[in-house]
Hints:
This protein is α/β, with parallel strands linked by helices. It has six helices and six strands, in the order βαβαβαβαββαα.
Amino acid sequence: MSHAALAFVPLKIAVLTVSDTRDESTDTSGQYLVKAITDAGHQLAEKVILKDDKYQMRALVSRWIASNEVQVVLITGGTGFTGRDTTPEAIAPLFDSSIDGFGELFRHLTYQELGTSTVQSRAVGGLANHTAIFCLPGSTGACRTGWTGILAEQLDARHKPCNFVQHLV
Length: 169
């Protein structure tokens, strides 16, 4: 596949909400991501809510990384600094390579919205077994910023000069 395709390529995307308090009725961040990916034309592979437990997260995300049915994993929650926020520690060891620019750009975008409070974001991204993994903060606003400011374009094969689709298909 060339680095910039002429046609949209729908990706199979899994969504994980990491939260000790949310359920399907209160998971506005996960709901936002599901709507954003399906509105964009991608396919929802699976949606799960897990408690903030790094071993459960690693087990689930490892299953998705090993599956041919998941090309992208979007994780919301667990990226703060409380004692229960372990998403970066749980997921980053699974990366074959880090996407350092994802966290950097996310913080740049949120600086415009939140000022210096953005330094408390530990948004991270990486690639593992031809699967892109992006960890976003748990707020719906952060998920919206991550999707509209970065992911919508980077998960679209038509975006030039480059995008992640060529690494996933």
